[in-house]
Design brief:
The chain has two domains: about 120 residues, Response regulator (Rossmann fold, 3-Layer(aba) Sandwich), CATH 3.40.50.2300; about 90 residues, Orthogonal Bundle (Arc Repressor Mutant, subunit A). Helices cover about 40% and strands about 20% of the residues. The chain contains eight helices and twelve strands. The longest helix is centred in the middle third of the chain and has 15 residues. The chain is globular and about 50 Å long. This is Response regulator transcription factor. It holds the Pfam family Trans_reg_C.
Length: about 250
């Protein structure tokens, strides 16, 4: 693991749970997060992670996918079912299927091993800022509407046709980005930069989140009418589409 140095941007202290069975990785990650000002707990296996999350009430979980007892994907699934806590996954470089599965389960971000601890801290800072109701510009703090959807950045709540949508942090920010720029074609690189704050990364992250968002707002996710694919470019949000209206939460 790299031992990059430097001080990340200041973010109000948070409770972070690090779940990794490699003692060296856990020691380095917890050390960097503590130096960034956060309170950090550690669990070395799946059952301990679930127990710690219930007792510790973390603001964010850094979760390795390869865990003894209960694997990281199952831990992520249970965390998302029980606690609306942001999750950053740690994955091996070649585990694309597991990475996509984790994103499908609602993980907010991932970092691929081997990684720079400073990069991980920056990712933690980014997710924490969004989880604390800081909305991406230029959406601002005004309510956004379109396609039967109403999204309030101040309360971080959204509904379609009166039914509340259950969205992860990234899904909410992605929807806010689309609603604030209706009718525009958005490239996946642009979405990664503006919504995730990354200048690099795996574009499948965007694809997975668009698919998850479609499942929650489209009448027929297999034939999307609201978030349309623009071949060779990316996606376009049709704010004027109004239909039967079963766009409830899942």
């Amino acid at each position: 693991m790299s031992t990059a140095t430097g001080t990340p941007p200041s973010t109000p202290p948070a409770r972070v749970l690090v779940v990794d069975d490699d003692p060296t990785v856990a020691e380095v990650v917890t050390g960097y997060l503590r130096r960034a000002g956060h309170e950090v707990g550690h669990a070395a296996d799946g059952p301990a992670a679930l127990d710690a999350a219930a007792r510790y009430a973390p603001d964010l979980v850094v979760l390795d996918l390869m865990l003894p007892g209960i694997d990281g994907l199952e831990v992520c699934r249970r965390l998302r079912a029980e606690h609306p806590v942001p999750v950053i996954m740690l994955t091996a470089r070649g585990d694309e299927d597991d990475r996509i599965a984790g994103l499908e389960l609602g993980a907010d971000d991932y970092v691929t091993k081997p990684f720079s601890p400073r990069e991980l801290v920056l990712r933690v800072e980014s997710v924490l800022r969004r989880s604390r109701a800081v909305t991406p510009e230029p959406a601002g703090r005004r309510p956004l509407t379109g396609a039967g959807i109403r999204l309030d950045p101040r309360t971080r709540r959204a509904d379609r046709n009166g039914r509340e949508l259950t969205l992860t942090l990234r899904e909410f920010d992605l929807l806010a980005h689309f609603l604030s720029r209706p009718g525009r074609a958005h490239g996946r690189e642009e979405l990664m930069r503006d919504v995730w704050g990354w200048d690099f990364g795996d574009l499948s992250t965007v694809t997975v989140h668009v698919r998850r968002l479609r499942a929650k707002i489209e009448d027929d996710p297999a034939a999307p009418r609201i978030i349309q694919t623009v071949w060779g470019v990316g996606y376009r949000f049709d704010a004027g589409f109004e239909a039967g209206g079963q766009g409830g939460s899942r």
